[in-house]
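Morning run. Coffee first, then this:
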Amino acid sequence: MTDSKSVTKTSPPAARILIADDDPGDRHSLRDALNQLGYDVVAEASGSRQAVDLAGRLQPDLVIIDADMDEAGGVEAAAAIIGSDIAPVILIAEAANNIGQLARDVSISGFLVKPPREEELPAIIEVALARHGDVRWLRERVAELEDALETRKVVERAKGILMDLHGLSEADAFRRMRKTSMDNRKTMREVAEAILLSHDLQLGSDII
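And here it is:
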């Protein structure tokens, strides 16, 4: 007879949320609602500058900002946080049409109308987090592809130089670069860039 072991399932960590509102009552009500839903309110800001500062220092998963804070300074704070790619931002305001007008030039991830209903918070928050994750993944993927393309271009140029200087075939030039890469624990791009630099310096000395 074998002993059965219970498996403990761990839940993913709660989203870390920064809330910013210059009305203490509204701010505290939102904090209590988020805590009740299981989210982690990491900080509260009472002004737009404080919101940007806290977002930069704490790196929350999400920021909820009052659009009307500091006479619409909340929108500027949202733009600064989004522009720095710190976290997605949800704007909250007294009326839906006011939010749309204030935020038309800001890539916010969601809207909330005061007072927000507790039952609507999870859907808006989770959609904002998911969209931000998708956008960040796509941005990283594009950067990886661009880097791979640039690496290929550099390697091809370096191969051409080796072929011209040493009369090597393309395959032999590539093998020489790969061996140098392995022997020196350098990436192929680093080896290729070194070849290009050496070649450029040699051309320069010939001219001088």
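The chain has two domains: 16-116, 142-207. Good start to the day.
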